[in-house]
From TrEMBL:
<dbReference type="InterPro" id="IPR027417">
    <property type="entry name" value="P-loop_NTPase"/>
</dbReference>
<keyword id="KW-0808">Transferase</keyword>
<dbReference type="GO" id="GO:0009691">
    <property type="term" value="P:cytokinin biosynthetic process"/>
</dbReference>
<comment type="similarity">
    <text>Belongs to the IPP transferase family.</text>
</comment>
<keyword id="KW-0203">Cytokinin biosynthesis</keyword>
<dbReference type="GO" id="GO:0005524">
    <property type="term" value="F:ATP binding"/>
</dbReference>
<dbReference type="InterPro" id="IPR018022">
    <property type="entry name" value="IPT"/>
</dbReference>
<dbReference type="GO" id="GO:0052622">
    <property type="term" value="F:ATP/ADP dimethylallyltransferase activity"/>
</dbReference>
<keyword id="KW-0067">ATP-binding</keyword>
<protein>
    <recommendedName>
        <fullName>adenylate dimethylallyltransferase (ADP/ATP-dependent)</fullName>
        <ecNumber>2.5.1.112</ecNumber>
    </recommendedName>
</protein>
<keyword id="KW-0547">Nucleotide-binding</keyword>
<dbReference type="GO" id="GO:0009824">
    <property type="term" value="F:AMP dimethylallyltransferase activity"/>
</dbReference>
<dbReference type="GO" id="GO:0006400">
    <property type="term" value="P:tRNA modification"/>
</dbReference>
<comment type="function">
    <text>Involved in cytokinin biosynthesis. Catalyzes the transfer of an isopentenyl group from dimethylallyl diphosphate (DMAPP) to ATP and ADP.</text>
</comment>
<dbReference type="GO" id="GO:0052381">
    <property type="term" value="F:tRNA dimethylallyltransferase activity"/>
</dbReference>
<keyword id="KW-0809">Transit peptide</keyword>
<dbReference type="GO" id="GO:0005739">
    <property type="term" value="C:mitochondrion"/>
</dbReference>
């Protein structure tokens, strides 16, 4: 007796092969192939995400994909705190100063452009490192883009700093940015009828300086201008601190919502240490642990890397070690 080629259910209905019933574009090669590795560096503004990404890229053959929704735009390099050419240390950066500043660059746009950049980096046998503070962009790429779930395995590094310490740091950073030409950059794009809801003009610092620049244009006296500038700088600091808080809340939400395996690296000790010792503490608390995590991630094709968190004791030991 010949064996029937089609399977039948108990009810006598023919059971169709699963793959034959799949609707839509389905690439079997993508489904079965080993996933490509992608590193994601997350954290609130001012925590050192770009620094860590660049340092990792000097240890592993890598290129960086910017995931900051304001730094993608051309212009306002000081206002948006972009890494300089010197700070990039020759590491290629994608989606940095590459988008028309008047356009609206959505999460969907980021997903498309980032995936193109990732594929081009992988084609050169290099490691894509995504770094930036716009967690909605990262969420869109990792969870909303079905292709990414099939193609990539992600390693999440979260650079964290105690919020009170971070708030003081970002406040001081605003002062340094003002000294570095912050106001002049905004002055160059000032429009008294400007719309601050689109493009690069959404950047913190642009709407806050509107009243000052309008008064300056109208010829207000120096006393009034000084008061308005001080108020604007104060608002910039407050809004930057609020941004840091929202970013931290979003990171915690992503961990809870999607069960991302976030590797938290507590950099607080480096922010509490001055001078060259700060570099040593950063290396002990952030760079060296991150390098080990990435090295294991790249070598490990199957095991899930367990979550590790720098404890307060670990921070204290690292600070003490370089202070001796």
């Amino acid at each position: 007796m010949r064996m029937a080629l089609s399977l039948t259910s108990a009810a006598g209905k023919q059971v169709q092969p699963l793959v034959g019933n799949f609707q839509g574009n389905f690439n079997m090669e993508q489904f079965f192939r080993r996933k490509d590795k992608v590193v994601v560096v997350m954290g609130a503004t001012g925590t050192g995400k770009s620094r860590l990404a660049i340092e990792l890229a000097t240890r592993f053959p890598s290129e960086i994909v910017n995931s900051d929704k304001i730094q993608v735009y051309e212009g306002l390099d000081v206002v948006t705190n972009k890494v300089t050419e010197e700070e990039r240390r020759g590491i290629p950066h994608h989606l940095l100063s590459s988008i028309d500043p008047k356009s609206n660059f959505s999460s969907r746009d980021f997903t498309h452009h980032a995936s193109v950049a990732i594929e081009s980096i992988l084609a050169r046998d290099r490691l894509p490192i995504i770094a930036g503070g716009s967690n909605s962009y990262i969420e869109a790429l990792v969870n909303d883009y079905a292709e990414a779930r099939f193609r990539y395995e992600f390693c999440f590094l979260w650079v964290d700093v105690s919020l009170p310490i971070l708030q003081k740091f970002v406040s001081d950073r605003v002062d340094r940015m003002v000294d570095g030409g912050f106001v002049e950059e905004v002055r160059q794009i000032f429009d008294p009828e400007g719309d601050y809801s689109q493009g690069i003009k959404r950047a913190i610092g642009v709407p806050e300086l509107h009243e000052y620049l309008r008064a300056e244009r109208d010829g207000a006296d120096e006393r009034v201008l000084k008061i308005l500038l001080e108020l604007a700088i104060s608002r910039i600091k407050d809004n930057t601190c609020r941004l840091a808080f929202r970013q931290l809340e979003k990171i915690r939400l992503l961990h809870t919502k999607w069960n991302w395996n976030l590797r938290r690296l507590d950099a607080t000790g480096a922010f509490l240490t001055d001078g060259e010792n700060s570099v040593d503490v950063w290396e002990k608390l952030v760079l060296e642990p991150s390098s080990r995590i990435v090295d294991q991630f790249l070598c490990d094709g199957s095991r899930r890397i367990t979550t590790g968190i720098s404890t307060p004791d670990a921070v204290s030991r690292a600070v003490a070690a370089v202070s001796r």
